[in-house]
Amino acid sequence: MHGNSLLYFFKYSFYMGVFVYLIFFSNSFIYAQNEFESTEENLNVTKSKSHERFVVPFSASNTDRKNPVIHTYDIPKDVSWILSIENNMTYQNSSEAKTIIKLMENKPSEKFIELAMFEHNEKFWVAVNTNESGYIRVHEQDTDGWSRDEPIMVAHANNQGLTITNGKRIVIDRLSLDGFSLGSIAIYGKDDTDSPLNTLDGYLSFDLLYGNPRDSPLYFLPIVMLVLVGGIVLYLLKIKKRDRDNE
Question: Is 51-210 CATH 2.60.120.560?
Fold first, then answer.
């Protein structure tokens, strides 16, 4: 009987947490879509006070490194930000078919974060380029390196550094870049203009949350989860005490 009650409590707590999260986040997202709608270089862009989303067609991966598709933010994001990247593209059946994404600071800075997603074996790498150290690959995985089912998450805060998940697990954890101000994102796939096409269909979407964490609905999620976990602990202690009294 206690087992059924505990299972019910866990389910109730989980659904309440998800419900609260969706209330906070969906309100912000709906506002973002309704408040601003514009087109920038054939990109579908939506903006709000602390959120910006844009979508690029599959053809972005068929551009070369010298002529990428670039989305530039009106104001660089330099406090804290979380970027979600969702890859819904159909690739050529080739070991070289890929998409390269570069998160860049505004010039004259040469600092950038590079993500590479390959079709073949879902190869994946992360590289960083800084003025002091140059270009360094800080993570590389030849197989099962990124997920088509879950978004890649890139987060940065000045006091936490850079954290990246590949849709399955954390691959970069609080890497210090001595600050990073996100000014633009470039997307391409070809090494040169004569390279074969990379993608045939689909799109790539980018969702950015930024600013002071206290201004974001995500700031309250850990608090909600802490309350739920605390309730579970108290419930378990109560059950344990009741079992002792019955002995």
Answer: yes
